[in-house]
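Researcher: We're teaching a course module on how sequence relates to structure. For the next exercise, students receive a sequence and then see the predicted structure as tokens, so they can try to spot secondary structure elements on their own. Here is the exercise chain.
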Amino acid sequence: MKRYIEFPCLKVAQPIGTFYLGVIDSHDLVAISYADVRRPDGRDLERYIGTQRDLSEARVTEIKQYVTTVDASFPTSIILSIDSENTDYDEENRTLTIVRDDKVAKIIDGQHRIAGLEGYSGSAFQINVTIFVDMELEDQAMVFATINLKQTKVTKSLAYDLYEYAESRSPQKTCHNIAKLLNSKKDSPFYQRIKILGKASGSGPQLLTQSTFVDRLLKLISKDPMRDKDDVKRRQPLEKAKETDLKTRVFRNRFIDGRDAEIAKVLWNYFKAVERRWPTAWNDISKGMILARSTGFAALIRLLPEICWQQISDDQIPDGDFFLSILQKCSMRDEDFTSSNFIPGSSGESALFNNLKSGIG
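Model: And here is the predicted structure for the students to work with:
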């Protein structure tokens, strides 16, 4: 015997035709929807069936975590296509009835959100949906292409910048604030070197994006920033780092205690020492010099816990002279910090990190 879902819907007329706007329970949505992933069609590799891309497992995992947070929301609509034989619209009551079975609703847009809701067991999570009935495959493809080609992708730098407006604390907000502070102070080693919002502005060299700075600093505070943010909003206590954890997340306990200024001061002292140790390389912004760019920054911030995790865990703020005395043990010269020696990307970063770590013993 067939089972059915009934939910309120509005009928909408637009040039493409008639469709319906409704609100459906997430469990029902998962049960009836499917993605028609495009595949090579026989011998003609240029012809494809379907409109959807392969799922990104990393994206699905991220969404599965996100939907459990206290402020989870999907405000934009999931777009579906359903055959008329599986649906019926009641004009008088403005309700849509759909057969509750798998592979009833073809996903035009939103497959990652739906996959992220599979297995969801939290409180009620309703989803707004746009439903086309008997939609031609050509129209399905055009709607999908229009949505995904015309939209402007939000940069990570902008996303981090928006944390400034959040009232509650979070690792992301702390790292954003520190990036802005170090970028704005004239004596800072990062003065006008960070592209806030990911775009160049002002008169400084701006060698790092805000997202590069924040992403790397986050790793020294939290192994799960999204979970920490959610716990703070739920007024749940954050777990402090034990001694073994402090070898990597050296700033975690300072963050939990609200001592963000101390984190900024340690970074200030450390990178000032880098500037004193290799002044030419740090201030040479010509093409091919990497110490002050993302490769150098990433390797240096990875090196920081290796140098002084114990001093930081003891609530000390090592001064510039302390850091300089460590860095002077490394025999690397200013002219060594070039892209020909350390190519941009993760391999160059790792090679530079290993050289620095070996150099300081």
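Model: If you want an answer key for the exercise: Residues 156-359 form one domain. The chain has two domains: 4-150, 156-359.
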